[in-house]
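User: structure tokens for Neutral zinc metallopeptidase, please.
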Amino acid sequence: MTWSDRLAPSLDDFAALGKAAFDALPDGFRQLAGDVVIRVDDFPDEEVLDALGIQDPFELTGLYQGVDLGQRSVLDFATQPSRVFLYRRPILDEWAERGDVSLGDLITHVLVHEIGHHFGLSDDDIHRIEDEA
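Assistant: Done. Predicted tokens:
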């Protein structure tokens, strides 16, 4: 393979990789995630970084925004759909630095991590599950 004619994956390429990653998840997992919208941006916006106390936008590869399943009630008013953000540039940066994982696998990892938040899991819960796997 020659790299001289290769371009970095675009936002649309990342969206396609995110959709493929979601489609490859087990049926039960996808059904529980049902209404989650997957969005790809180059970086998180300044408001998100400030809210999380993050200085370097390369430190955030993904984000879940919404009300997790454990906090929802049938009595709630209709809300915006839950969203998972995949941040292209930080993911590409991590992928290039690591060199031990495919881009598709890294995108899947970030996507599953953020969907874990949709299920009500904390970062500690997710890391414990990953360590036990």
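User: Anything notable?

Assistant: Strands lie at 37-41, 62-65, 83-87.
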